[in-house]
TrEMBL record:
InterPro entries: MFS_dom, MFS_sugar_transport-like, MFS_trans_sf, Myo-inositol_Transporter, Sugar/inositol_transpt, Sugar_transporter_CS. This is Myo-inositol transporter 1. The chain crosses the membrane at residues 43-61, 117-134, 140-163, 175-197, 209-227, 309-333, 345-367, 374-393, 424-447, 459-481, 493-511. It is found in: Membrane. Belongs to the major facilitator superfamily. Sugar transporter (TC 2.A.1.1) family. Residues 1-21 are annotated as: Disordered. It comes from Trichoderma ghanense. The lineage of its organism: Eukaryota, Fungi, Dikarya, Ascomycota, Pezizomycotina. It is a multi-pass membrane protein. Residues 1-11 have a biased composition (Polar residues). Keywords: Membrane, Transmembrane, Transmembrane helix, Transport. Its main location: membrane.
Length: 533
């Protein structure tokens, strides 16, 4: 037996016995583990999900708070008004660092554990918040945003992983949406706090509190991490099956006693880890030339069904960002301010509330309606909302182009505002239609990416798709205000509508329905084509 055939993790019950039916044993164990996971999640799992979800909250808070911050800074940084370029760089440096850090965090998560990444991210969240709060120049603020970006990148990768690995398997899907719910809740909190501080605190200190407050949940989570266990899957991989058993027993509420279900789950994990390890060895053996040691990438790119899965996952993640949603999340207060709304931060709260409420609705609908179908129903409404907003903008006198002006100059006179109330309301309502339909579909579905990939390429495929998300997020953050300058607000929104239309065609053509299918059935859809009926 060569090393690739030897079991990497010994199975205590069968090691010494003569032949046994490994396949039947495996099936029985998987059935038992599956059965166990059909029960309701216990209090312990809920507490862990909540503790880990604080990272989602921070992800949302720190990306959402920039909207109110940008309109409240005034001349506090570098003693001058922020230019469009300053605003774009302050905003998009966060997504750039999120993009750069995610591959490293997956490496650290494998070597040192998931908990360690959560803890390091908390430290970065605190340092980044403090640096922003005390910054006096644009470069210092950008440095603070970069540190926050590193934290967000690590958290956005590790939290879904942590939750999925500690939670019973039948909850994995719904927990993905719960994580998005935490993100949108964080964004809503950022908008409420942004509005309250920009209205009631002093101009000089209000925005500093906005960005600084992000340190509090991070400190709370940093303290909670000490009490959170490492995931059973990582413990098994690290050769600590006994510790893993204790965690599984706790998750199943059978602490300290023998339990068949917990044993079956541990066996299931051991088998999965062994299969993964064997697959990796096999991939390396079959790879040659420059692919040597990069077997998983070779497999991801050379096998047709994996390539198709990757194309779909990257399409959905790219579309989630290129449709322009985050330009609203980051700049809605700036947009409403140049439209002459008296309280832009209060008005922009509507964006965050609509996003949160419709993510809640998606939680209920997603499994009933299906992923493909919910996208095909919602994307046309996104395009419609964008086109109506573009029409509304064309009736507002926003010349010279708004993003080039500072906010004081951009505020129209009272008579102008009265004259322009109707198109402004049209823009507001259209934006709400757009945000609601985004939250129902594109805001969630791309994060279900892992179900498209078979185990052997799952983390590599999901990693590339996540990087696509951050790269597109960075591109939108950096280009939105310059596009408003160069094309006008109307044409910028038309451009996003065109992205939605192209995206609709591609989703219709290549994204099969995966709702209600087991992971094996879902990945098998792509065996011989796109699987779209
Ligand atoms: O799924 C989330 C959610 O939709 C957020 O509201 C958005 O800001 C993020 O970019 C996205 O990844």
């Amino acid at each position: 037996m060569d090393s690739s055939q030897a079991p990497l993790i010994s199975n205590s019950r069968h090691d010494d016995d003569a032949p046994y039916d490994a396949a039947a044993d495996e099936r029985a164990s998987r059935a038992a583990a599956g059965k166990a996971s059909n029960e309701q999640p216990g209090l312990f799992v809920l507490i862990l999900t909540f503790a880990a979800g604080i990272s989602g909250l921070l992800f949302g808070y720190d990306t959402g708070v920039i909207s109110a911050t940008l309109v409240s800074i005034g001349k506090a940084l570098s003693d001058r008004d922020l230019t469009s370029m300053d605003k774009s760089i302050i905003t998009s440096s966060t997504s750039l660092f999120a993009l750069l850090i995610s591959p490293f965090s997956s490496h650290i998560a494998d070597r040192l554990g998931r908990k360690r990444v959560i803890l390091y991210a908390d430290v970065l969240f605190i340092v980044g918040a403090a640096l922003q709060a005390v910054s006096s120049t644009v470069p210092l603020m950008v440095a603070g945003r970069c540190i926050i970006g590193a934290a967000v990148g690590a958290a956005s990768f590790v939290v879904p992983l942590y939750i999925a690995e500690v939670a019973p398997s039948s909850y994995r899907g719904r927990l993905v949406t719960i994580n998005v719910l935490f993100i949108t809740l964080g964004q809503m909190a950022a908008y409420v706090i942004g509005w309250a501080l920009s209205t009631y605190a002093s101009q000089e200190t209000g925005w500093r509190w906005m960005v600084g407050l992000g340190a509090l949940p991070a400190a709370l989570q940093g303290a909670l991490v000490a009490l959170m266990p490492e995931t059973p899957r990582w413990l098994v991989k690290a050769g600590r099956s006994d510790d893993a058993r204790r965690v599984v027993q706790k998750v199943n509420g059978v602490q300290g006693r023998f339990d068949g279900t917990a044993e079956a789950i541990i066996k299931e994990i051991e088998m999965e880890v062994r299969e993964e390890e064997e697959m990796r060895l096999l991939q390396d053996r079959h790879a040659s030339g420059p692919w040597k040691g990069l077997g998983v990438w070779h497999e991801l790119l050379s096998v047709g069904k994996h390539r198709r899965a990757l194309a779909i996952a990257c399409l959905l993640q790219g579309l989630q960002q290129l449709c322009g949603f985050n330009s609203l999340m980051y700049f809605s207060a700036t947009i409403f301010s140049i439209m002459g709304f008296e309280s832009p931060t209060l008005t922009s709260l509507i964006v965050a509330i609509t996003n949160f409420v419709f993510t809640l609705v998606a939680l209920v609908l997603i499994d009933r309606i299906g992923r493909r179908r919910i996208l095909l129903y919602s994307i046309p409404f996104m395009a419609l909302g964008l086109l109506l907003a573009a029409a509304g903008f064309s009736h507002l006198s926003l010349e010279p182009s708004p993003a080039a002006r500072n906010d004081d100059e951009a505020t129209p006179s009272k008579t102008e505002v009265e004259h322009e109330t109707r198109p402004a309301v049209v823009v507001l309502v259209s934006i709400m239609v757009y945000v609601a339909s985004y939250a129902l579909g594109l805001g969630n579905v791309p994060w279900m990416q892992s179900e498209l990939f078979p185990l052997s390429v799952r983390s590599a495929g999901s990693g590339v798709a996540t990087a696509t998300n951050w790269a597109a997020n960075f591109a939108v953050g950096l280009t939105f205000l310059p596009l408003m300058d160069a094309l006008s607000p109307s044409w910028t929104f038309v451009l996003y509508a065109v992205v939605c239309a192209v995206g609709y065609g591609l989703v219709w053509r290549i994204y099969p329905e995966t709702a209600g299918l087991s992971l094996e059935e879902a990945t098998a859809l792509l065996d011989h084509g796109w699987g779209v009926r």
